[in-house]
Amino acid sequence: MKSVLVLLLLVLGPAGNVSIATAQSPGTFTTTGSMTMPRVFHTATLLPDGHVLIAGGRTADNSVLASAELYDPSTGTFSLTGQMSMPRVAHTATLLADGRVLIAGGAELPSAELFDPVTGTFSPTGYMTIARAAHTATLLLDGRVLVAGGYDSTTDDDLLSAELYDPIAGSFTPTGNLHRAWYLVGGATPLADGTVLVGEEVYDPSTGLFTDTGHSGHDFDFTTTLLTNGIAFIAGGGDSDPLACISQTELYDPANTTFAAAPRMTLCRFYHTATLLPSGIVMIAGGGSYDAGPYQAYLSSVEIYDFSSGTYGWIGNMIAGREIHTATLLGDGRVLIAGGGGAPGYSALASAEIYTPSVLVPAPALFSISGDGRGQGAIWNGATGLIVSPANPATAGEVLSMYSTSLFEGGVIPPQVAIGGRLAEILFFGDAPGYPGYYQVNFRVPNGVAPGSAVSVRLTYIGRPSNAVTIGVQ
Description:
mainly beta; Immunoglobulin-like; Neuraminidase; 4-stranded antiparallel beta sheet; 42 strands; 2% helix
């Protein structure tokens, strides 16, 4: 173990040089390149290489799009990439453990496909059990994806059913049913214990069942965000009145399965976005509102919720009023806001903008023996203390340890660690002893990893993937 500590001193450098800052002060909104076409009800997914995949949606003339494009944060530009097999709107896009993106459903479609960022192409995968739109898709701790709710656009029926996508088999299978129908755009989040809050019900992957909490506070078009303390923050949306939106927010505590009222937002909002920033605050942007009268307004205002104080604050206005847009936390700590519907006349927007916090917190970083974040990782066997390398390969079930940056101090949201494209069981994460600003993560090598001398290891935290390093696996 002594040799590991010496190695880490060389790789990490002096602990006093490490500082993770938080963004608490107001930042700025600036324009960035426009998408190649207007989009609303599209998806945006941060890829492991830092690009953002924008897929599908509806354009200004109500045409449904099969096209996809990539945003490059280094140049601030969008460029077309591979075409989906068919047009999709109100679909879902989920980053899988192996770096591919599962695109599922959309209006009148039970089909699904996979985007491979290495080739820039889409390929078909298994069919869902039913056509879904406006559903949710959530990555589980075992690497499967829970697809839940929405509506069947072929019959216009609300759906109570749910299903699981297995990326190894490339197939969908039914799981337990919801108790109530939800219009779930943004209304699901994985909890720290591996269960999933879907609407106001909790899905347990170990039983395949949903538990109804019996609570009813938000009907549709709300957002659900897991805070770094493990509490779920539910904001806005609408109720049964078609011309009503609510400013109400609530906190769901998984430990005692209770909801508690939180302070109201300054405006009622639906079809807004809620983005957890690396500082732990939630950025609530845009949306539709009826606060100003009987006609819908497209909000440009942006406010933040600070759970540590339970208060809201303004951070300014977006350049354009938007609803049903996307907000994507980038690897460098900025937020990309793209597309959506806005004035005049609910026109789909091609414009995009960037929110830059006062202090940027980069995505997590893993360390390599070379010190450049590439190749052989500074990852050691928890039992022997030896670096896991081609000469000392890991085996399924063994416990490994590594250091990372940019986790949240004292946070309870576990990081995800993918080894050879399969998610590992997280056994511990927390402060690295003797290294302020660094974090130690202990994890178990999963079954089924293809053996090799340079198997990829990547960590993802609050949606942002790290660089990839390698280990030996036998």
